Inverse folding.
């Protein structure tokens, strides 16, 4: 029970000292969560309230199912971007996507299939994050300058920016750029050595997004002239809490009813990529903040899955662990997952009482917050590390970045994963095989050592290498025996076994014997079961000399004193 | 030059003794090639003459480029079936497919990418052949009984057979079934021990298809009643040789001109699967008949590519090495590839003079020939071998068979390949890691040996295994040092290196050191370049004791006499 509901483990031990810490941390996170939620709704192309709808359920659910005190589950820039291409019809797509992603994540968690994300290597992850950050930031560049734009895509956004640059609105541009610069500076404030003001500057730095929004709202409200506002704003936010109801299993676009099946097929590949990316983000964050403790990835996936499923009931878009807010939570000194309750309540209160105020949030402020976050989402150090440590790993990185930027985020990561998988497949087709030649008892022997597991893709390679070695010997110096050694513990498959049997036949035409030397029972069994004469191939022993005697390969009339005892 | 044009190597040494052997073999192959060509045109859903158009160019081209004396290039049942779904619009699709397949095969050959077929394992090949044979035979079951049918697919054919069984035409059914039984018996005739008639029965057996066609034609001609024929026939064959002209880069279907681009996109995945299957068949045959000689797969692919390209100029459908006819060629005692010239000339003469006669070939005879060939194309022994040797290899086999039968041949083989690749990927994610615990100089040491190459998919697995091992130790018995050993010759990628660095951090929280012990320069370099403190991780030496002393891990006040010298 305590494994599935970790809350049962820590809640009974809860004491009043934790309460204050959790309250302050929850509040700080909440002050970031609200502006980010509204901003990420813009990224997803949804009305601002959907961001707030997404920002509370995860906090509450994670208290019950979560294992890591720091993690904050909510809308993130990447999931917002990934859902964006589907919501043009109706926001119901985002909500359904949230619910279904939750179901998929939960299933993957229960089936322990979270290990699938291990096939997303660090170069691919880094490339994906970089491309997503660039795409998201590019999508906001027009809003930052008050230029009208309809697209959030990388190329379209910059094309729009340069072709419509003369439509820049001075007010918006000034506010946007100033906010961005101040945000970037405030991020650095907490690193300053200010002695006694350290706590103060730290919390100022942590709640900088809320401050930016507050300043934006104030400016917008105070500088308004009759009903004309000085800045472009996000528009009305419908007040009140979302209804708790079933996710939309059908929707209406332009008067046409779209059934469940069509909605699912429209969501398509996103129903695989969004859950996988969500798992990847959430588990990676859990690991980053686990400090040497083992992360229970299955439980994290259950928490994330239930969060998304419950989110589907309150009109949420897909949610996952947010790196920014988790870091804020951690540095604000949170003690237990209960901090999430404060964050969630704050979001709910904002929805209940502050929606009128949020009307005045300038778009340029939101753009500055988003761009400010994206600049630090790119892992520059990581890119340098990949380049330094192994140049070839730059290929999957570049494939991912370019395919994500110029094709689409979903297919980009798939392209990166596939590009990287070719490394594994290539390696499997080219195992390390060491072939050496020895003269034992006047018999030329080829000793073949396979250093890795053989599988069907390497079967012909092995055969080719041995045939090439055997047939390339000079005349009068022919190899009479090939001794094939494989690793302990490693088995072979039927393709390898069949190739070895056909290799034996081919070698016999060159009057050369093939012996599988000291194979473990698992690999030997495959050969043995395949062929009634299989046991002629399999030999065990300690000395090659005895083997050669047994095989009667040594010419008996020549006396040799060469000793070739090997282990 | 002799590598690219092997003809230059053997033609100067040609002598009159070879001539007779080559002539007899070429004639025997031709007598099989003609009925098979007409039959496989039916399988492809093309008019009979297209089969003959496909059957001569490969023979001539292979003389110049081929390396293996036995191989006969021409239409085969599988390529016919694979092209069948595209020709309903126009036979031009088959011809264009032939030309483009040739270009692709040639490119793959020149780029040495023929190794790609190594990823098609024996279980997948066996399953594909089996499914193709079943599909082709099923497609002919209606013709065998004289039932009208429009489909060649597995389910549709049998559905049509059972629902229209009452439409069976007695004449056709009698001819078809009798022919089939006689063909199967004649196949066995050559195994009989007839002493002096051995040569005679051998050639009767080898030319049984031609005899069956001859008997069918005679029966059909003699039993005709005015203009009513006793059997269903294939229909008119337009007489004369095909024009030598550019392949059809556009075509007209129902009065609409279809441009090149649309034709290519209609051919779609077939432009990948047909070349790959052609290479697979052709190279596999070359290997089967090479008798211990190394097969120059690149040259075989060049020969096959040029054959298909030239075939595109004479209205051929895709062609590849035919196992049946190659076997006949071999057992007829062919000496050089020149035998192909006789076969090719025979086909040309049939086209020039015999088309009127071919009008009388009963469909039931062709169906019997096809079904008779398909029964022996299924490798029953192979299936048994796979089952015996390794049960798990039955999964890709079954996936291939079922997907090919119930989905489509192209996607079926892809599904099988992907199912089998999961084995490689799973293996790469779960390398063999041996962790043992030793007490050296009173220090608890964990010795981790990785038996296979580490790559990104196994990076987290390694980390998890070590963390799990370290944190699961009883109190007072904590591991103070983890010694990580990898294989000689094997390198690591940046994901593994980054995971090892993060593992070191996590271990340091448990007050445990991590040492990469005696790593080769290639793998060590990745760690070293990544981290300025990387060389603290990397240690070299012969004795663990010295390492523990150097690291100052041993409590100096305890005197230990445990020696732990290891290589």
């Amino acid at each position: 029970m305590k494994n599935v509901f970790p809350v049962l483990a820590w809640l009974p031990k809860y004491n009043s000292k934790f309460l204050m810490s959790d309250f302050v941390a929850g509040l700080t996170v909440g002050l970031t969560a609200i502006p980010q939620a509204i901003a990420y709704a813009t990224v997803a192309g949804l009305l601002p309230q959907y961001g707030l709808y997404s920002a509370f359920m995860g906090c509450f659910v994670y208290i019950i199912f979560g294992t890591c005190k720091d993690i904050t589950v909510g809308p993130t820039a990447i999931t917002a971007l990934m859902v964006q291409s589907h919501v043009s019809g109706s926001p119901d797509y985002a909500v359904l996507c949230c619910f279904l992603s939750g179901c998929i994540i939960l299933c993957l968690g229960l089936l322990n299939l979270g290990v699938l994300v291990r096939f997303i290597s660090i170069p691919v992850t880094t490339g994906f994050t970089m491309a997503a950050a660039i795409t998201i930031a590019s999508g906001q560049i027009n809003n930052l300058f008050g230029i009208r734009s309809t697209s959030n895509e990388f190329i379209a956004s910059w094309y729009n920016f340069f072709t419509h640059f003369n439509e820049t609105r001075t007010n918006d541009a000034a506010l946007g750029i100033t906010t961005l610069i101040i945000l970037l500076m405030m991020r650095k404030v907490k690193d300053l050595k200010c002695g006694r003001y350290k706590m103060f500057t730290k919390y100022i730095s942590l709640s900088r997004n809320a401050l930016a929004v507050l300043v934006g709202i104030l400016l917008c409200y105070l500088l308004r002239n009759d009903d004309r506002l000085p800045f472009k704003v996000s528009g009305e936010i419908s007040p009140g809490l979302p209804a708790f109801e079933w996710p939309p299993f059908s929707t209406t676009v332009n008067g046409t009813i779209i059934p469940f099946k069509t909605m699912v097929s429209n969501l398509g590949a996103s129903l695989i990529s969004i859950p996988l990316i969500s798992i990847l983000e959430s588990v990676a964050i859990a690991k980053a903040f686990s400090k040497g403790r083992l992360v229970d990835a299955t439980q994290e996936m259950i928490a994330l899955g239930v969060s998304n499923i419950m989110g589907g009931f309150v009109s949420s878009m897909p949610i996952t662990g947010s790196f920014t807010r988790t870091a804020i939570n951690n540095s604000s000194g949170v003690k237990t997952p209960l901090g999430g309750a404060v964050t969630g309540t704050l979001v709910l209160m904002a929805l209940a009482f502050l929606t009128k105020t949020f009307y005045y949030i300038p778009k340029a402020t939101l753009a500055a917050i988003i761009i400010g976050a994206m600049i630090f989402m790119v892992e520059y150090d990581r890119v340098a590390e990949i380049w330094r440590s192994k140049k070839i790993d730059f290929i999957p990185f570049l494939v991912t970045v370019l395919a994500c930027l110029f094709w689409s985020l979903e297919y980009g990561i798939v392209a990166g994963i596939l590009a990287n998988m070719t490394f594994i497949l290539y390696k499997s087709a080219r195992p390390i095989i060491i072939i050496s030649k020895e003269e034992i008892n006047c018999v030329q022997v080829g000793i073949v050592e396979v250093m890795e597991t053989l599988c069907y893709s390497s079967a012909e390679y092995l055969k080719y290498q041995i045939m090439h070695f055997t047939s390339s010997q000079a005349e009068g110096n022919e190899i009479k025996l090939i001794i094939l050694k494989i690793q302990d513990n490693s088995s072979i498959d039927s393709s390898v076994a069949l190739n070895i049997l056909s290799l034996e036949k081919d070698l016999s035409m060159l009057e050369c014997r093939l012996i599988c030397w000291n194979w473990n029972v698992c690999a030997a069994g495959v050969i043995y079961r395949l062929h009634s004469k299989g046991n002629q191939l399999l030999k065990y022993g300690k000395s090659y000399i005895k083997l050669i005697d047994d095989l009667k390969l040594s010419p008996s009339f020549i006396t040799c004193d060469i000793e070739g005892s090997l282990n």
In short: Chain B touches chain A through 60 residues (CB under 8 Å).
